[in-house]
Amino acid sequence: MVYSELHGIISIMASKVILTTGANRGIGFSIVQALAQRSSDLTLLVASRSKDNASEAVSQLQGLGLKADFQPIELDVTSDDSIKSAIKEVKAKYGKLDVLINNAGIAGKIAEDNSDFRDTYQKIMNTNVTSVALVSTLFLPLLREAKDPRVVNVSSARGSLTLVTTGKNPPTAFTAYSVSKAALNLLTVEMSHANTDVEFQAVNPGWCKTGFNGFRGPRDPLEGAQSAAELALAPKGQYKAGFWAWENETMEEVPW
Ligand SMILES: NC(=O)c1ccc[n+]([C@@H]2O[C@H](COP(=O)([O-])OP(=O)(O)OC[C@H]3O[C@@H](n4cnc5c(N)ncnc54)[C@H](OP(=O)(O)O)[C@@H]3O)[C@@H](O)[C@H]2O)c1
Fold first, then answer.
1. Per the record, a Pfam family (predicted)?
2. Over the stretch 124-154, which tens digit does the pLDDT of each residue have?
3. Which residues of the chain are modeled with pLDDT < 70?
4. In Å, what is the CA distance from 207 to each residue of 15, 155, 202, 220?
5. Which of 27, 75, 85 to mutate to test the pocket of ligand 1 (most atoms within 8 A of CB)?
6. What total of structural domains would you count in the chain?
7. Which residue from 103, 118, 219, 247 has the highest number of Cβ atoms inside 10 Å of its Cβ?
8. CB 228 within 8 Å of CB 101
């Protein structure tokens, strides 16, 4: 092995490798942007179910003048084959994963006549819960190759039983979505208890202006992205495993 190859491998081993799902647009894109703004010494895997969209997002991030090492990667979180090939690619190129950010998510409203009830519930639960559980579980061996492995799940205030039961969350027409985020919160806690060598966190990005809500959210997605970026890069032990949001330039706990 020549010196330059060895040096390349050593520098990859030193810099953190962080994969964000659904990073081609919306909050996922902003999470990658926020990470790169905090440090240029990162390998940021921009995952999308479309490799073209991932590559396009990488070009946009580079166009912002950000200097991190952005790499496009194809990952449809609902496809077992896609998950396995993404893992194979990360293993071959980096041999580890420092942080997995499970951001990809969907919502959906059930038709008035309930004709799509089961289908809509299943799609939302499959993407927002089952796929996060499977992606996280299958990436665990690569996460364990990192010094300080972390998983950050992008949840929602809609998943907080406390905020719902105290009336702080107004009623919603998107019940399946809220149920999925409450389940994602419990998944975060259960996986944390079952895998004490990996840090599991949930974040609430707040109501952000993305395609998800027809760009009606008041919050800049880059602001919404800060909680995930902070938890990905904070010194070990700075934040206990929990449910977090970025408010007024600082991290605040969200009640479960
Ligand atoms: N926006 C808000 O106000 C808000 C508030 C609280 C929580 N959140 C959460 O934040 C996360 C991101 O939401 P967003 O507002 O950025 O939504 P968005 O603009 O609709 O983006 C969703 C992202 O998820 C990806 N995705 C969907 N299904 C996927 C799959 N099967 N495999 C891989 N990627 C998939 C989409 O990819 P394509 O481009 O291929 O469709 C897209 O990149 C979600 O988990 C959402 O629940 C959002």
1. adh_short
2. 999 999 999 999 999 999 999 999 999 999 9
3. 1-14
4. 32, 11, 16, 9
5. 27
6. 1
7. 103
8. yes
Q: Are 86 and 47 in contact (CB under 8 A)?
A: yes
Ligand 1 first shell, C-beta below 6 A: 21-22, 24-28, 48-50, 53, 76-78, 103-106, 127, 154, 156, 205, 207-208, 210-213, 217
Domain that includes residue 159, residue range: 3-253
* Tokens, residue 73: 């990667």
Partners of 250 in the β-ladder: 247
Backbone Cα Rg of the chain: 18
User: Beta strand 199-203 with 243-247: parallel, antiparallel or unpaired?
Assistant: parallel
Q: So what's the pLDDT on residue 5?
A: 53
Distance 22 CA to ligand 1 centre (A): 6
